[in-house]
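quick q for whoever's on today - can somebody do inverse folding on this one?? i tried earlier but teh output was garbage lol. tokens:
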């Protein structure tokens, strides 16, 4: 039995968790900064760093308390090393190093994107089926939209990523255009429930012949339509535009993922990252995939520390711990 205490501060969520054997979540504590950053319409890095400093110790203590454990009861300390905001990452890494030094526990610096994928292995009380290899991971977090092929644990082959705006970034930018609020993903989804997804024939950026994505043109199409309506003094049909935009994004994500899954003969699909919380995406890919689809529970789709512990467990098993001198990797790629 291996228990790992993990810390996550890559962006605007201060999180800590204790996970057993890379799967069973004993605790997961998250201090959100959404209300603070909503004033700016996005994450303000300096503010995020200061909030992490204030929250990190109480959140870590809560995670241990909720798991009914002390620091001496865990086997290792894990922390997000990157990618992410440098100031935010520094708070978590320095705190984790302090914990590991004080307790003389091994430390592991984990890739945030790797953590998102391993969120698919997490459960609370009742074990869920594990994804089978080879698998294809559709990684759709804030600044990332990527297709990753995994032949086995810790083996990553990046098939393609975004050339410009990631899906999450496009959701945020279009939500701002439509004055729907922040964060953009939930705001777009809520508005889309009242709209007609076929009301506007927005383009689908397929980038044929590649496994890459591009959502900048789609975002621009929304912008041009909004500007044209404003010039004509016509009302902006927020719900219809949200529904049509969401449908276009989901069409591309699902279409390219299923095509890649077939091309590489995978046994399962993992959908991970903040955008994997989108209900339309979850419904479409689950119903259309010929192989099992594994999507983390909603609480583990957005940034959390349990996913970092899940990934760290695999590295701990492989004896891939880090020394004390490891540094941040704000632009760390996976695969």
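ok took a stab at it. sequence:
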């Amino acid at each position: 039995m291996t228990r790992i205490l993990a810390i996550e501060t890559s962006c605007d969520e201060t999180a800590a968790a204790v996970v057993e054997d890379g799967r069973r979540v004993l605790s997961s504590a998250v201090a959100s900064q959404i209300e603070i950053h909503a004033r700016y319409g996005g994450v303000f890095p300096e503010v995020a760093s200061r909030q992490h400093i204030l929250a990190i110790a109480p959140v870590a203590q809560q995670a241990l308390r909720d798991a009914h454990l002390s620091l001496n009861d865990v086997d290792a300390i894990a922390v997000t090393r990157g990618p992410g905001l440098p100031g935010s990452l520094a708070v978590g890494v320095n705190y984790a190093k302090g914990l590991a030094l004080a307790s003389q526990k091994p430390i592991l610096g984990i890739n945030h994107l790797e953590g998102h994928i391993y969120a698919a292995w997490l459960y609370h009380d009742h074990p869920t089926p594990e994804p089978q290899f080879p698998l294809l991971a559709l990684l759709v977090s804030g600044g990332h939209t990527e297709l990753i092929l995994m032949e086995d644990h810790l083996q990553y082959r990046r098939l393609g990523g975004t050339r410009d705006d990631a899906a999450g970034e496009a959701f945020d930018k279009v939500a701002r255009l439509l004055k729907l609020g922040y964060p953009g993903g939930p705001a777009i989804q809520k508005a889309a429930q009242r709209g007609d997804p076929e009301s506007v024939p927005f383009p689908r950026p397929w980038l044929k012949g590649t496994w890459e994505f591009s959502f900048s043109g789609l975002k621009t199409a929304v912008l041009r339509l909004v500007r044209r309506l404003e010039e004509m003094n016509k009302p902006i049909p927020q719900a219809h535009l949200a529904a049509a935009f969401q449908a276009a994004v989901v069409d591309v994500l699902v279409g390219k993922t299923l095509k890649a899954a077939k091309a590489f003969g995978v046994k399962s699909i993992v959908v991970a990252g903040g955008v994997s919380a989108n209900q339309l995406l979850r419904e479409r890919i689950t119903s259309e995939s010929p192989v099992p689809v594994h999507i983390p529970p909603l609480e583990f789709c957005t940034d959390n520390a349990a996913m970092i512990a899940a990934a760290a467990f695999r590295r701990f098993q492989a004896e891939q711990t880090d020394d004390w001198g490891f540094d941040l990797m704000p632009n760390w790629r996976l695969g």
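fwiw The chain has a mean pLDDT of 94. also The first strand starts at residue 3 and ends at 8. so keep that in mind when u check it
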